[in-house]
Give the backbone structure.
Amino acid sequence: MTKPQGEDTHQKTVRGRVQNALLGARNVGGRDRAEAVLAHRSVGLDDQLAHEATEAAHQVADLAAEGDWRGATDLAHRTATEVAQQVQAPESKKPTRAEVVERVKGHRRATDKPAPEVRVPAHGGARRQQRPRRQ
């Protein structure tokens, strides 16, 4: 099987997780495990895609039970690729450029003010001035 071109990391992760679950459905007792994995939210599927993948897991298990391992494997790969193409990328948590600029401006304004000097103990009981470290 060739991997689809232009696939982002989220789609690649979803394809791998769905494919592993579906390929596991070929084994004895794998159908239940595949259902549990596909129902779990960390896979990144919404309800409709999870249902579609679960139906495919049942078909894969049935094909494997009939002895058609090649057909089960092909169905698993094909379904995983189709589901990965339909999945939506999650919202990016990276701050926008404008938010970063505002935050940096705030830091610069804060560092423009001279920091108060503090007297700290020095050798021989004397006290010396120490400026706070720059952040």
